[in-house]
Amino acid sequence: WTIVERYERQSSLKIHQANPYYAEFSVYMKPLMDQPGEVFQYNELDTSKPVHVE
Question: Which residues cross the membrane (predicted)?
Fold first, then answer.
């Protein structure tokens, strides 16, 4: 299974990771998994530059 989280700003991700429940989640999930978890980050769109659609 997969968990997908989307954030508009990098700062929102940092706030999420600083939440005490963030670390607690992996502690809870680890015994339920038959393989080690993998975390991937994918940036869907580069928002550092304006996007123009014609």
Answer: none
